[in-house]
Inverse folding.
């Protein structure tokens, strides 16, 4: 049956009738040292302008190599054609291994334990031994030209509200370098990376395509992220976890969508991808019908190779790889951008798109505010992979400073009819040529089912613009993988596996139940759990100092855990009436060099020297009586309501040396006496 649905209303599309399939891939940084270099996993949040002069800088060019089967991966081949030079900044936590000038070390043991723990929590089955593989990466994010990935376990299960989701594989891999900037020159593109993140251990978890709806995808991402945090072995913060979506409908094909950082956007991103695949399927059959070619079947499983080969020949014939220099035709163009680029030596290169007039589309929006899918956007997306800012195409012209006269002149130069479209871009000649080649290739693909590819969520100001995506690269194949020969196999013993299984960390629900039994508020319990400091809380409560739950929880939330030993002693002394509340922060901050066994003695002495010893009750009562004598009119007028303002006056008079509880009690008693007289 032909797929039904309104592309202009993505949320109304029915996943079941469209043959929806979806799986998740999650990459989560682990809170351990680097995977193969024993360097610390410290990140330096520097921009390109902040890099210290003493950090070393090196330059490389990468080329794609053959995989184990003797073939060069399609994604790697594409990246190599982008003519890029890579500059690497070497921070203090990057050495010869990160620079690919020394062989890697075996897996970090703590990272392996972390991934095995996650495997056990997901009921996955570990492999007998760890065999690292090299995964070809030629975008410069790995100095070696490959990323090391190790299969750890398979066949797990994730429980969600809408049904179980199978876990296909769980892997341990290296994170990539972090891009700082990219510059285009007349000779090619120069990309600068910093190596602080390169080699950080990641757990990669890929699910089976068991997700049944866009909302189920969000549920699954939330459940998996929560499970990983429960291990207390993962990094937290922006960029520490990345979710990728594998999405298809029957009339389309599998697309991997990266950049789904905000989980609330996942359903919308999926719905828009379903609409895009449906639109492109319908456009394909429109093009085939006009060209008297066999229609594309509504289910990809019914695709016939012989038919597609015939269509491919016809598409190449209709869309020949002919690129034309139209710089002269645009010499009088009113577009400032075009004129300035041509003046700097760029070229305006154009291609004919026979039969595509009116099919590229212009910018329109669906009923929910997202851009409607259109072929012109796909062509622009393909061209941008060459590094150009974008393209001009005839369905959107005249516009952007390109006049009707310019359009007529270009059509005349290209010798095309009203049924034909054209596209052009202005860039350095090598780049414009690569961009126009990409436009022709993507136009030919419009006669086929959508390509299997990796796409990125379009981001504006740090969040998805509207849930739409753009092409990033072809979907990689098996040719990109081959064995790593520099790292020996590492066996996973039954004893190690059983030991980890016997001491799995508690779930968030179990941790919350434990917190609810304490004398702390629900807000404190939630904040403690979100900050992942409940173990520290219980260490203080159950340790030698036997700290009361409420003040200990307050101190942890207010002052943090950077110096827990000193903080616990300070809270103990505060509850014992030996130091003031104001003294806690000051004493903890200055105790970094004090040995733990000397902490109580040192802090007691320092409190006395600095005036952080609480005033005794008799002194407090005297100050309270003096102030109430001065403020008798206020007490007579406000009664107990005078407590608030008078607390501040008393505390100020005592110079911060008083216990707030003692002051409050004394004030209440004395005011009550005055009111009863």
């Amino acid at each position: 049956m032909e797929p039904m649905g309104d592309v202009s209303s993505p949320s109304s599309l029915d996943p079941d009738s469209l043959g929806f399939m979806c799986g998740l891939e999650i990459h989560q940084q682990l809170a351990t040292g680097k995977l193969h270099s024993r360097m610390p996993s410290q990140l330096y949040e520097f921009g390109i302008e902040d890099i210290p002069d003493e950090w070393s800088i090196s330059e490389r060019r990468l080329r794609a190599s053959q995989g184990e089967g003797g073939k060069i991966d399609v994604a790697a081949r594409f990246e190599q054609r982008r003519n890029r030079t890579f500059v690497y900044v070497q921070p203090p936590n990057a050495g010869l291994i990160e620079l690919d000038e020394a062989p890697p070390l075996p897996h970090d043991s703590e990272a392996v334990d972390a991934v095995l723990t996650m495997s056990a929590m997901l009921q996955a089955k570990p492999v007998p031994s760890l065999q690292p593989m090299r995964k070809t990466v030629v975008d410069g994010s790995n100095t070696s030209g490959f990323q090391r990935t190790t299969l750890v376990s398979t066949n797990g299960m994730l429980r969600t509200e809408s049904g179980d989701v199978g876990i296909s594989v769980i892997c341990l891999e290296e994170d990539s370098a972090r891009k700082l900037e990219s510059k285009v020159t007349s000779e090619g593109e120069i990309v600068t990376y910093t190596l602080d993140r390169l080699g950080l251990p990641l757990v990669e978890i890929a699910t089976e395509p068991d997700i049944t709806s866009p909302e189920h995808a969000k549920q699954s991402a939330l459940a998996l992220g929560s499970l990983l945090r429960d291990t207390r072995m993962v990094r937290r913060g922006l960029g520490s976890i990345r979710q990728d979506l594998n999405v298809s409908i029957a009339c389309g094909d599998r697309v991997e969508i990266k950049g789904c950082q905000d989980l609330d956007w996942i359903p919308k991103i999926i719905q828009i991808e379903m609409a895009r695949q449906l639109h492109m399927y319908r456009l394909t059959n429109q093009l085939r019908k006009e060209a008297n070619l066999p229609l594309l079947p509504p289910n990809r499983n019914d695709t016939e190779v012989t038919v597609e080969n015939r269509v491919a020949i016809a598409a190449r014939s209709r869309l020949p790889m002919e690129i034309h220099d139209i710089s002269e035709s645009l010499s009088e163009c009113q577009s400032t951008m075009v004129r300035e680029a041509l003046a700097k030596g760029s070229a305006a290169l154009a291609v004919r798109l026979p039969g595509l007039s009116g099919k590229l589309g212009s910018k329109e929006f669906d009923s929910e505010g997202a851009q409607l899918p259109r072929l012109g956007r796909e062509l622009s997306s393909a061209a941008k992979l060459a590094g150009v800012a974008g393209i001009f195409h005839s369905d959107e012209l005249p516009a952007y400073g390109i006049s009707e006269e310019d359009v007529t002149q270009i059509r005349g130069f290209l010798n095309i009819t009203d049924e034909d479209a054209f596209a052009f871009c202005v860039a350095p000649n090598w780049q414009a040529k690569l961009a126009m080649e990409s436009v022709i290739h993507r136009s030919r693909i419009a006669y086929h089912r959508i390509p299997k590819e990796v796409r990125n969520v379009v981001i504006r100001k740090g969040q998805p613009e509207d849930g739409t995506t753009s092409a990033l690269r072809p979907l990689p194949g098996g040719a990109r993988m081959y064995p790593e020969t520099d790292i020996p196999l590492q066996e996973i013993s039954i004893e190690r596996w059983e030991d980890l299984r016997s001491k799995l960390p508690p779930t968030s629900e179990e941790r919350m139940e434990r917190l609810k039994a304490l004398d702390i508020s629900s807000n404190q319990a939630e904040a403690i759990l979100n900050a992942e400091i409940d173990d520290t809380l219980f260490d203080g409560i159950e340790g030698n100092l036997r700290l009361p739950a409420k003040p200990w929880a307050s101190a942890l939330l207010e002052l943090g855990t950077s110096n827990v030993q000193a903080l616990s002693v300070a809270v103990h002394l505060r509850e014992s009436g030996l130091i003031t509340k104001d003294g806690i922060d000051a004493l903890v901050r200055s105790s970094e060099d004090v040995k733990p066994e000397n902490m109580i003695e040192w802090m007691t002495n320092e409190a006395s020297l600095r005036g952080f010893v609480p005033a005794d009750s008799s002194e407090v009562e005297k100050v309270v009586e003096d102030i109430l004598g001065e403020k008798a009119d206020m007490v007579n007028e406000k009664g107990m309501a005078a407590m608030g303002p008078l607390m501040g006056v008393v505390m100020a008079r005592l110079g911060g040396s008083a216990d707030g509880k003692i002051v409050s009690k004394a004030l209440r008693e004395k005011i009550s006496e005055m009111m009863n007289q």
